[in-house]
């Protein structure tokens, strides 16, 4: 099985999830916005745009290199657990990308096309699901 290295020179930014987090302390209500970008980066700030910029910087620091097969799939099954999220990613030649939630976004931006991904946990946390997918992709062999 021949593997080839895929490098994306620029980080594509997609705001996957934004949430407003409010907190009351000493009678003052403070609101923050939390944003998650795919290529997993999380940033929190008082403004949505600042949160997305922080998340983008964090995502650029955490980029990984993938070794894909000729048909842009992965060479074998990988499974990973991050916090309560468990994800399994299997190669499936000819089926295209079959995945749900934030795992699909991670795999699309990584350039993986012929895989099936399954969330084996009941966790609905998109950040942990995306990080579990990244951790599974990190466990693949790397070509130098």
UniProtKB/TrEMBL annotation:
One Pfam short name: Ribosomal_S5_C
Phylogenetic lineage: Bacteria, Candidatus Giovannoniibacteriota
Keywords for the protein's UniProt record, in alphabetical order: Ribonucleoprotein, Ribosomal protein
GO molecular function terms noted in the UniProt entry: RNA binding; structural constituent of ribosome
Family: Belongs to the universal ribosomal protein uS5 family.
Residue ranges of every copy of the Small ribosomal subunit protein uS5 C-terminal domain listed in the record: 81-142
Gene Ontology cellular component terms for the protein in this record: cytoplasm; ribonucleoprotein complex; ribosome
Name by which UniProt lists this protein: Small ribosomal subunit protein uS5
């Amino acid at each position: 099985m021949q593997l080839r290295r895929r490098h994306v020179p620029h980080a594509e930014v997609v705001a996957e999830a934004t949430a407003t987090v409010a907190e009351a302390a000493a009678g003052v209500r403070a609101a923050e916005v939390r944003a998650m970008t795919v290529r997993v980066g999380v940033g929190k700030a008082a403004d949505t745009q600042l949160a997305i910029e922080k998340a983008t910087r964090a995502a650029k620091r955490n980029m990984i290199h993938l070794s894909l097969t000729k048909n842009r799939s992965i060479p074998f099954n990988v499974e990973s657990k991050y916090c309560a999220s468990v994800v399994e990613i299997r190669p499936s030649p000819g089926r295209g990308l079959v995945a749900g939630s934030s795992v699909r976004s991670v795999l699309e931006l990584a350039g993986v096309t012929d895989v099936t991904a399954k969330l084996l946990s009941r966790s609905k946390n998109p950040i942990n699901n995306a990080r579990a997918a990244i951790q599974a992709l990190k466990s693949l062999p790397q070509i130098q």
